[in-house]
Amino acid sequence: MQKSLGKFIGMTTFLLMTSSASIGSDQVINPFSVTPFKPPKNSAITESYRTEWNRMTGFELSGLHWNQFIVVYTDKGSKTYKKNFYEYIKWMQAFDEGDDYEAQYQEYPVGTVVLKENFTSDKGRPDLATTLTIMVKHEKGYSPKGGDWEYIESTKDGQVIMRGKAEDEAINQRCAACHMSIKDRDYIYSVHLTGDHSN
């Protein structure tokens, strides 16, 4: 099942900028209509996140996430994600042109969940579903070192691999240390935005 699902996703990901593909003359397959992941056990995330949340990207190759393909979703952080993405692009453009630009990044609302689906890469295309990596924004004081974000990593079947905050050494090494390098963007990279898939 996993191999066939992986091949299905791989076959349809030539549409990195869209959400559907025409197979033959009358069949349309949407790679986001299937649900290859179960959410982490004992979390508030439901299996309907793919249809109820905002999808911020298509399949994007991420060197930051172990050279896997990722798809990013958020429940209520889409406005902040988009704002920070465009601020980052303005900063990059100014940098390339030798100009100064002070990006005006925003913080995410408390309760925001940012979820990344991770897929292996095969010949430059997404292949097998691997893990979910999730960040949850908590009330001030939850994690002073890490901007009050909780980190969760789970298998595609919902088994929690690790869960915690930046103060936890394992979480710091696996996740938080990298995200702390972008404190100004409230610890979320937001370097991909493929169209507007907000629900």
Overview of the structural elements:
There is one protein chain. By secondary structure, this protein is of the alpha+beta class. It has one domain: Chalcone isomerase, CATH 3.50.70. Helices cover 23% and strands 27% of the residues. It contains 4 helices and 9 strands, in the order αββαβββαββββα. The strands form 2 sheets. Strands 3, 4, 5, 6, 7, 8 and 9 form a 7-stranded antiparallel sheet that branches. It has a two-stranded antiparallel sheet with strand order 1-2. The longest helix has 19 residues. The two termini are 29 Å apart. The N terminus is likely disordered.
Which structural class do the helices and strands define? alpha+beta
Low-confidence parts, pLDDT < 50 over ≥5 residues? Answer: 1-25
Distance between the termini: 29 Å
Rg calc: 17 Å
Give the oligomeric state of the chains in this entry, treating copies of one chain as homo and distinct chains as hetero: single chain
Order of helices and strands: HEEHEEEHEEEEH
User: Helical element count?
Assistant: 4
How many domains, in number, for the residues? 1
Task: Please name the CATH architecture.
Answer: 3-Layer(bba) Sandwich
Q: Biggest sheet, in brief? A: 7 strands, antiparallel
CATH fold annotation = Chalcone isomerase
Number of strands: 9
CATH C-level:
Alpha Beta
Helix content: 10-25%
Give average pLDDT, whole number.
87
Percent of sequence in beta strands: 25-35%
